[in-house]
Amino acid sequence: MTRLLLRCCASVAAVGLFAGQARAQNGSERPALRVGTLTANEITLDGVLSEPQWATVDSISNLTMIEPEEGGVPAGRTVVRVLVTPGDIIIGVRCYDPDPRGIVSFTKARDIELDEEDHIVIILDTFQDGRSGYVFAVNPDGARFDGLVSAEGEDVNSNWDAVWEARMTKGGAPRSGSRSAASASRRA
Predict the structure, then answer these.
(1) Strand, helix or coil at 153?
(2) Fold of 2-186
(3) For 106-123, what is the HEC assignment?
(4) Out of 2, 42, 104, 174, which could bridge 117 as a Cys pair, Cβ 3.0 to 4.6 Å?
(5) DSSP label at 55?
(6) CA distance 69 to 112
(7) How far apart are CA 23 and CA 86, in angstroms?
(8) Distance of CA 50 to the CA centre of its chain
(9) In this predicted model, what pLDDT tens digit does every residue of 22-57 receive, in sequence order?
(10) In what order do the strands lie in the sheet with 144-150?
(11) Which residues contact 152 (CB under 8 A, 6 or more apart)?
(12) Contact 135, 157 (CB under 8 A)
C-alpha cells in the first residue's frame, strides 16, 4: 500500500478539493467529504498516517479507475482523508495493493511525467469550474510532479512549481507489503 500526505497552502479553498479525475462509484461526478480541522499543524510529514486525527476524519474510499478502464473497479482500495489548519491543507492517501511486488516506480526526478508508473494524482479545482486547477502527483518512491491545469483539463503547465513536500512509505501494519502510505505538504 502507498500512502500520500499532501500539505498545501490553506488559502487554496478547502471546498471542492477533489476534482482529481476520480469518480465515486455511485456515478456522481465528484466525491465529497468533510475535512478535519486542526488548530495547529499536529501532523508529522512522514508518510505513515499514524496520528490519531487520521482515524477520526471523514474519508473517500469508493473511487473508480480512470485507466485502463474508466469507471472500472480498482484492483486495490484507495482511501483519501483531508485535514486543514489555518495555514495548510494536508491530504493523506492510503493505497492498498493486492500484489505489491507489481508496483512500478522508477522515476526519481522532479516534474517528470509519471504516466508509465504507479502514482497518486490530486487535482485541486479551486474555482470549481472543472476547467482549471492545480495538479500534484507523486510516485511510490516520492518523485513529485506539479502543474497548472487549463483548457478544461486538456493541458498541464509543468513549468509551474509549487512549494510542497511529499513523503511516501511502502508496506506497514497490519500486513507488511500490502499497503503504502503517502503524505505531502505545501506551506504558504
Answers:
(1) helix
(2) Immunoglobulin-like (2.60.40)
(3) CCCCCCCCCCCCCCEEEE
(4) 104
(5) H
(6) 24
(7) 28
(8) 17
(9) 344 444 456 677 889 988 878 888 888 889 999 999
(10) 120-124, 133-138, 144-150, 155-157
(11) 130, 131
(12) no
What span, in angstroms and rounded, lies between the C-alpha atoms of 130 and 124? 10
- What span, in angstroms and rounded, lies between the C-alpha atoms of 105 and 40? 34
Which of 4, 8, 2, 5 lies closest to 124 in space, CA to CA?
Answer: 8
Q: Domain-by-domain residue ranges, the chain?
A: 2-186
Cβ proximity of 18 and 58 under 8 Å: no
Judge if the upstream peptide bond of residue 68 is cis by omega within 30 degrees of 0: yes
Taking residue 108's Cβ as centre, other Cβ atoms within 10 Å add up to 10
Burial of 154 (0-12, 13-18, 19+ CB in 10 A): exposed
The grid cell for 7 is: 500539505
Angle at Cα 164 formed by Cα 144 and Cα 86, nearest 5°? 145
Closest CA to 188 of 110, 104, 88: 88
